[in-house]
Specification:
Layout: H1 2-31, E1 35-39, H2 60-68, E2 70-76, H3 82-91, H4 95-98, H5 122-128, E3 132-138, E4 169-173, E5 183-186, E6 195-196, H6 201-214, E7 227-232, H7 256-259, H8 286-315, E8 322-326, H9 347-350, E9 351-352, E10 355-357, E11 366-373, H10 377-384, H11 401-406, E12 414-419, E13 429-434, E14 437-443, E15 449-455, H12 471-487, H13 492-500
Parallel strand pairs: 1-7, 1-8, 2-11, 3-4, 3-7
Antiparallel strand pairs: 2-9, 2-10, 4-5, 5-6, 8-10, 12-13, 13-14, 14-15
The chain binds calcium ion.
Calcium ion binds at residues 42-43, 82, 237, 329-330.
Length: 501
């Protein structure tokens, strides 16, 4: 009997030990999911990262991050404009499938040009898979109601909790460009409870994120879950002059020629060849003369603030298992082709930075020419962190995770380019950006068709439209574009075919 009791005790203790061990293993496994830090400054072209040796900018922290991770040279903002990019980023769907056809503001309220409650988004899926999700900075995904009896266009908008798609830490605003006096709605704040700040927004937001990473009491996140933080820094977006003086040090004594080094800069051009394009910013190149120094100073300032955040990640011991991504919603023309701003098919607008660092799974010091579309980011990131439960099956983007971690899988051969008029999903331009070419068909407001073709290998500054000179390449790209649009069920295709009949 004594021996029997001894045996029973042994069995019970063994079971308990095994069960404890299993628990601790599952807890560890759970905690092993990587954190995500997704940082996307606004209007930051790929050329404006120092390591690319193009713009004469100083970005030591981004350069260091590039050496510690993978630098992807062909990240394309498929629709290089604030809200459409953000809509694609969050939903993994193309503009005509997620309702964000143009920039959100009160004029487009009637078109419902906003992030839709029903579109299961990247943050919804992350939260469903056990993440804390945070959003800091500019959202610009909701068209507010117009002001009664007034014609003023309202841009900024409060994002009600029920439209935040699972983000449980919120320190954000709609769109507001006074970088030295930003404002925010924090977590539970109601629409009239705005936090006003007298500090450069990038610096202030870096402090908020450093606090989120450190997570002291009172806690900003659970601490037991992995976190996914999205940081949308408004600079280097205009107005360019709102930048702390100290960041001008590298640029203030340089001449325009030393700063605007791209061969396609045309400060005296009125870009009349693009007069048909209502998205192109023409006759504003005086801003490049006045502000290229300020814009690049902002780039350096944003780099410094990102550096502070990355240092905190390291100091807190979170560097090894955090995926850091640096990218942007679109670039900045800054006088190239006589244009300013974005919303055109040229490289300065569509080619955005893409640095990804994850010491645990991605080898350091890698360069890749992978073509990454904005819609690919959601499925790629969710598969990278194995947060796969609940990923919608109707996404327009592709999962590129195995290509990034193991160089396995078919690489995309092109990215699509879009420009769409407000409220008209079938309108505007469609194009294709391959490794070698950019091919664009534009339909203007009078239904006039134009075509543009560039040889990006022999003419990297896209100075010559070679349409009509190489019918073989042209036809190949044309067919590939139409095939892609058909696969994506783009309503533009029907309109185009009707025009041609
Ligand atoms: Ca933007």
């Amino acid at each position: 009997m004594k021996n029997y009791i001894k045996f029973l005790s042994f069995v019970c203790i063994s079971i308990l030990m095994v069960s404890c061990k299993t628990n601790s293993v599952s807890q560890e496994t759970k905690n092993e999911k990587p954190n995500i830090l997704f940082i996307f400054p606004d209007q930051f072209r790929n050329a404006a990262i120092g390591l690319n040796n193009q713009d004469p900018v100083s970005t030591p922290n981004l350069d260091k991050l590039g050496k510690e991770g993978m630098v992807i040279s062909n990240a394309i903002s498929n629709y290089p404009l604030c809200s459409p990019y953000r809509g694609m980023l969050m939903t993994g769907k193309l503009p005509y499938n997620n309702s964000v056809l143009s920039n959100s503001n009160s004029r487009r309220h009637k078109y419902n040009n906003s992030w839709q409650k029903g579109d299961v988004s990247i943050s919804d899926v992350l939260v469903k898979n056990g993440y804390d999700a945070g959003y800091v900075g500019k959202l610009h995904l909701r068209s507010p109601k117009p002001m009664e009896g007034k014609d003023t266009v309202v841009w900024d908008a409060y994002q009600p909790k029920e439209l935040r798609h699972g983000f449980n830490f919120w320190y954000a605003y709609g769109t507001f460009d006074q970088h030295n006096t930003p404002h925010y709605w924090k977590n539970d704040a109601k629409e009239d409870e705005v936090t006003y700040v007298n500090e450069w927004s990038a610096k202030h937001e870096a402090d908020v994120i450093i606090d989120y990473i450190k997570n002291p009491s009172p806690k900003t996140r659970s601490g037991k879950k992995p976190f996914a933080l999205f940081w949308s820094v408004n600079p280097p977006h205009p107005p360019y002059q709102y930048v702390p003086e100290k960041y001008l040090e590298n640029y203030k004594d340089k001449s325009l020629e030393e700063l605007l080094v791209r061969e396609n800069v045309a400060l005296d051009s009125d870009a009349s060849e693009f007069a048909f394009h209502s998205g192109a910013t023409r006759k504003r190149t005086h801003l490049a003369k006045e502000h290229v120094r300020n814009h690049f100073a902002m780039v350096t300032g944003v780099d410094e603030q990102i550096g502070r955040v990355l240092k905190t990640l390291k100091d807190e011991g979170l560097e090894e298992n955090t995926i850091v991504i640096i990218t942007s919603d679109h670039g900045e023309m800054m006088g190239s082709h006589g244009l300013m701003s974005k919303n055109v098919w040229f490289e300065e607008a569509i080619n955005v930075p893409f640095i990804i660092k994850w010491p645990k799974k991605i080898k350091a010091n890698q360069k890749s020419d992978l073509i990454v579309s904005t819609t690919d980011i959601m499925p790629t990131l969710l598969n990278l962190v194995e947060a796969t439960e609940g990923i919608p099956t109707n996404l327009d983007g592709r999962d590129l995770s195995s290509i990034i971690t193991d160089n396995k899988g078919d690489k995309p051969t092109s990215a699509l380019y879009y420009f769409i008029l407000e409220g008209q999903p079938a309108s505007g331009h469609r194009g294709l950006r391959t490794h070698n070419n950019t091919y664009v068909i534009t339909i203007d407001k009078k239904n006039v068709e134009r075509k543009f073709l560039y040889d990006n290998v022999n003419d990297p500054y896209q100075k010559v439209n070679i349409i009509g000179t190489d019918t073989v390449i042209e036809e190949k790209l044309h067919q590939e574009l139409l095939k892609n649009l058909k696969e994506k069920k783009d309503p533009w295709l029907e309109k185009y075919k009707n025009l041609k009949e």
